[in-house]
Amino acid sequence: MTTTHTGTSLWPIELNPSDHPASAEARTAVLADPGFGRSFTDNLVRATWTQDEGWHDARLEAYAPLMLDPATNFMHYGQAIFEGLKAYRHSDGSIRTFRPMQNAERFANSARRLAMAELPGELFLGSIEALVRQDRDWVPEGREKSLYLRPFMISTEIGLGVRPANQYEYLLIASPAGAYFPRGVKPVTVWLSDDYVRAAPGGTGEAKCAGNYAASLVAQAEAAQHGCDQVVWLDAVERKWIEEMGGMNLYFVLGSGDSARLVTPELTGSLLPGITRASLLTVAEDLGIRAEEGKISVDDWREGCASGGISEVFACGTAAVITPVGEVRSRTSGAWQVGEGGTGPVTTRLRQALLDIQTGEAPDRHNWLHTIC
Ligand SMILES: *Cc1c(COP(=O)(O)O)cnc(C)c1O
Predict the structure, then answer these.
(1) Any ligand 1 atom below 6 A from CB of 58
(2) How far is the C-alpha of 197 from the C-alpha of 78, rounded, in Å?
(3) Is the CB of 318 within 6 Å of ligand 1?
(4) Burial class (CB in 10 A: 0-12, 13-18, 19+), 176
(5) How many angstroms is it from 85 CA to the middle of ligand 1?
(6) How far is the CA of 135 from the centre of ligand 1 (A)?
């Protein structure tokens, strides 16, 4: 199955938009302070897969509750995957997404891991173009504001037999999103999870599946009990190597000033391959900062912060772009501060540089932006 997009071969979507869209007044009120994931646009896109027909009935229609049989497969056995990406309104009025075919490819990889039907890239991108065009008035204006797009897929065969389902539903919904840090970028305090693991070798850590998040919540609650904002995951086997922070990838700044270089944990199969993570490897090189994948242990982190060998640490992902890590706490490895506990210069520079590309304020040297309208 191909996921390459030629620009002319998008999957046709039948348009049957809502006959009761929000009033301009109601929409303006939402866009003034959208928060995250609270409000949704007037429409959605969906498509159905069956063994006989493959993907069919791709259509845009009014956003509405789904009616589901209580024995619908995914509610019991968790065949459920998702993606997350943003559409930005640029100062020239155009609306663009960032590397959407990377999300399409990862969505197909997630489907394969969960034994689900793969969604063709032309349908993934076609659904995004159709929904964003239809609901374009919901894309907020202003730096760091965006329309967050949430593609997802569930198994919809009815019955309690345990096997890959013979029917799937793909849906795309959209939610206006405000600035992640409305009062300025603020470093987080993280909790090293010694007791719970997110993903093990051979498991589903590489797939963006709902179950990974369900399994992470108890550790997130433990982090909160210790006054931490986020949990940091260690590898499942040695409980020694740093993998990720919550639903974001991590970067370590080694050295400082002109000799600063970046290291991000390598993709071992239990990390989620973030598109922000991959993009920052390139953006850093563009800025003349060496960036590579490697291994960082808990001891490396603690000792590096004590000696000054590690000057900054940050997490990255679509939702917050880049979030600095200011402080680390744990049950077995002690507690320490990263740098001065604030937002370091390399973190600030990278955040600015990536956001400038995404919002059209810097040239798109790598052809990462996809113009929708
Ligand atoms: C989605 C996700 C990320 C970040 O991926 P991006 O493509 O950069 O948004 C990182 N870790 C986990 C566990 C995720 O689910």
Answers:
(1) no
(2) 19
(3) yes
(4) buried
(5) 10
(6) 25
Ligand 1 centroid to residue 272 C-alpha, Å: 6
Q: Where are the alpha helices (DSSP H) in the chain?
A: 24-32, 73-77, 100-113, 121-134, 210-225, 275-286, 298-307, 345-358
Q: Express each pLDDT in 220-275 by its tens digit.
A: 999 999 999 999 999 999 999 999 999 999 999 999 999 999 999 999 999 999 99
For 154-163, what is the mean pLDDT?
Answer: 98
Q: How far is CA 79 from CA 64, 210, 274, in A?
A: 22, 8, 21
Tens digits of residue pLDDT in 276-327? 999 999 999 999 999 999 999 999 999 999 999 999 999 999 999 999 999 9
d(CA 41, CA 34): 11
Point out which residues pair with 38 in neighbouring strands. none
Domains of the chain: 3-179 (3.30.470.10), 188-358 (3.20.10.10)
The CB of 275 under 6 Å from ligand 1? The reply is yes
Q: Which residues contact 62 (CB under 8 A, 6 or more apart)?
A: 17, 18, 19, 20, 42, 43, 44
Any ligand 1 atom below 6 A from CB of 317: yes
Q: What's the confidence (pLDDT) of residue 8?
A: 55
Whether ligand 1 lies within 6 angstroms of the CB of 21 is answered as: no
CB 189 within 8 A of CB 330: no
pTM: 0.96
